[in-house]
Specification:
alpha/beta; Rossmann fold; 9-stranded mixed beta sheet; 11 strands; 44% helix; 13% strand
C-alpha cells in the first residue's frame, strides 16, 4: 500500500534542525524554527518583488520599489531592511543574533498590522545558544525554490515541520495538529470548490491549507474560497496565521479569543457552504449553564458533561442552504443515549446525515479514542432518506508503533465510494464489510445508532479454498514437525547421558 512520502529536502532540513535543538523542549523549539522559516519566506517574497519593481520592466514600469502600497497590492508583506534575511544571514555568527532576530520580528509586525501579535520573539532567550541559532539561519538559507513556486516550496517545508513537531510532542502535539491524512480525507469528501470555508476550532490551519490545495488542483483560483476560522489557544492561532501566510492565504477572518466558539462565537451570523473541523473530543464543562437558551440548540440542549453535540449543532447552525460539513467525532457520539441520543435522532429524521465513516485506530497523536468522520448535508438532492455507512477501520499503514495514517489509495477509495453513491453512479454497490447504503427505516430499526459495522456487516469470505492443496501443505508441515520432534528428543536423551548424579 503506497504511503505519503516526504521529500529529501524537507527530511534533510528536519534532521539538521533537530540536531541543533540540543536541550530545548520540542514545544518551545517549534516556535524558534517555524518563525525562521516564515521569516525566510516573507523576506524572499519581498526581495523577489523588489527586484521586479527596481527593473521597471513591463507592468512594473514607473513603479517605486520603496512604495509600501506596491507590495500590499501584490499580497506581499513589507520587510524593513534590518528584518531581511540577507541582513540576518550576514550577522548569523554575531553573539547578539538572537536580539537581531527578535528585533526583525518586531519591525515586521510594526510594518504589517495583519501580523501584529503573531510572530515569535523568543530568539534572545538564554536557553537558545547563539551558535545554534546562527546554524539554523545558515541551514534555512539552503532552501531552494528554483524548481518550484516560492509559496509551494516554503509551504511544504512549513507543513512538514508542523507535522514533525507534532510527532515530537506526542499527545501535546495533537492539540494543534490534525494528521494530514485525516484532513485530506475530509477535504476530498466535502470538495470545497467555491464559497466560504469555516473551521471554528482551526488549530494550525490544516483544513484551510488543504482546501486551498484542493481548489488549485481542480483548476480553481486563489480567491475561489474565503476562509473563516476561530481558535481559543493563542499559541496555536499564531502558528495558523504563519502557516496561512506562507501559502499566501488571506487570514483576515481567522481570529482568536480565549473564550472559544461556544461562549463567544466570532461569526454569529455567518452561513457557509463548507465546514471542515476536528473539534476537541468529549469536552466537559463547555459552558452549558450559560448557553441554555442559545439558538444553536435547534435539536436539543447538549448535556453539560459532553460537548460533542454542541459542536455538531454549532456546525449545522452555520451551514448555508445546500451547505456540507465534514468533521471528526469520537465514536461515542454514534451511539450515545439520553439527551445525545434524542438530538441524534432529530438530526437523522431531519435528513442531515449523509455519510458516516469509521476510521482506523491510532490516527491521532493525542488520543487513542476511536473516531469517525461525519458528513452532514443540508437539503440533499440525491439520496434523500438514505445514509451511507463506510467501515474503514482496517485501512491505513503504521507510521510507527503508536501511530497510523491513511494512504493516498485509502483516501481515494473512501472518497470515490462516497461520491459514486451520492451522484447515483451505477458503479456504486454495497460491499459487505465495507459500505452500505441504509434507509432511514433501517436506521430507525437500529434505534438511530450510527455505528457503520451495524450496517455493513462482516466481509464475505473468499470462496477460493482448495482442499487438496491445503491438505497437502498441512501434511508436509506436520511431517516436518515430527522430524524436528524426533531430532530434539534424541538431543535431549544424548545430553541426559552426560549428566552425572552423585550417589
Amino acid at each position: 500500500m503506497a504511503k505519503n512520502t516526504n521529500s529529501s529536502l524537507e527530511s534533510k532540513l528536519w534532521k539538521a534542525a533537530d540536531k541543533l535543538r540540543k536541550n530545548i523542549d520540542a514545544a518551545e523549539y517549534k516556535h524558534v524554527v517555524l518563525g525562521l522559516i516564515f521569516l525566510r519566506y516573507i523576506s524572499e517574497a519581498f526581495e523577489d518583488l523588489q527586484a521586479k519593481l527596481m527593473s521597471g520592466e513591463g507592468e512594473y514600469e514607473f513603479a517605486d520599489p520603496e512604495d509600501r502600497d506596491e507590495y500590499i497590492g501584490e499580497g506581499i508583506f513589507y520587510v524593513p531592511e534590518e528584518a531581511r534575511w540577507s541582513y540576518l544571514l550576514a550577522r548569523a555568527k554575531h553573539p547578539d543574533i538572537g536580539v537581531l532576530v527578535d528585533n526583525a520580528m518586531e519591525l515586521i509586525e510594526k510594518e504589517n498590522p495583519m501580523l501584529k501579535g503573531v510572530l515569535p520573539k523568543v530568539y534572545s532567550r538564554s536557553n537558545l545558544d547563539p551558535i545554534n541559532l546562527g546554524g539554523l539561519i545558515d541551514l534555512f538559507s539552503d532552501i531552494s525554490f528554483k524548481d518550484g513556486n516560492l509559496g509551494d516550496v516554503f509551504g511544504h517545508v512549513f507543513e512538514y515541520f508542523l507535522g514533525q513537531f507534532a510527532l515530537a510532542e506526542g499527545k501535546k502535539g495533537g492539540q494543534f495538529y490534525t494528521p494530514r491524512s485525516v484532513v485530506e480525507l475530509l477535504v476530498e469528501m466535502v470538495e470545497p470548490f467555491f464559497g466560504r470555508v469555516y473551521d471554528p476550532c482551526c488549530g494550525s490551519g490544516g483544513m484551510f491549507v488543504h482546501s486551498d490545495k484542493f481548489v488549485t488542483a481542480h483548476q480553481g483560483r486563489k480567491g475561489d474560497i474565503a476562509i473563516y476560522g476561530q481558535e481559543s489557544n493563542m499559541t496555536t492561532w499564531r502558528l495558523c496565521k504563519m502557516n496561512l501566510a506562507v501559502r499566501a492565504i488571506d487570514s483576515t477572518q481567522v481570529v482568536w479569543n480565549n473564550e472559544g466558539s461556544f461562549l463567544r462565537d466570532a461569526f454569529p451570523n455567518l452561513k457557509v457552504q463548507y465546514i471542515l473541523a476536528n473539534p476537541p473530543f468529549n469536552d466537559s464543562d463547555w459552558g452549558e449553564n450559560m448557553l441554555r437558551s442559545d439558538p444553536r440548540w435547534k435539536y436539543g440542549l447538549p448535556p453539560a458533561s459532553n460537548a460533542n453535540y454542541a459542536w455538531i449543532q454549532h456546525f449545522i447552525y452555520h451551514l448555508a442552504d445546500n451547505g456540507v460539513a465534514g468533521f471528526i467525532m469520537a465514536n461515542g457520539s454514534l451511539s450515545a443515549k439520553g439527551a445525545e441520543g434524542d438530538i441524534r435522532r432529530r438530526i437523522i429524521e431531519d435528513g442531515l446525515v449523509d455519510c458516516i465513516v469509521s476510521l482506523p485506530a491510532k490516527l491521532f497523536m493525542n488520543t487513542g479514542i476511536p473516531v469517525s468522520a461525519w458528513i452532514l448535508r443540508k437539503n440533499k438532492k440525491n439520496r434523500q432518506g438514505e445514509i451511507l455507512f463506510i467501515d474503514a477501520r482496517n485501512m491505513g499503514y503504521d507510521v510507527n508503533r503508536s501511530l497510523r495514517a491513511l494512504s493516498d489509495e485509502d483516501i481515494k477509495k473512501i472518497a470515490d465510494t462516497y461520491h459514486s453513491w451520492r451522484k447515483l453512479d451505477s458503479s456504486y454497490k454495497d460491499i459487505k464489510g465495507f459500505c452500505k447504503s441504509a434507509t432511514l427505516d433501517e436506521v430507525k430499526q437500529h434505534d438511530y445508532i450510527l455505528v457503520p459495522s451495524n450496517y455493513v456487516g462482516l466481509p464475505e469470505e473468499e470462496d477460493d479454498f482448495d482442499f487438496k492443496e491445503r491438505f497437502t501443505k498441512l501434511r508436509a508441515e506436520w511431517e516436518e514437525q515430527l522430524k524436528e520432534e524426533a531430532r530434539l528428543n534424541a538431543l535431549i536423551a544424548e545430553n541426559l547421558k552426560k549428566v552425572k548424579v552423585d550417589e
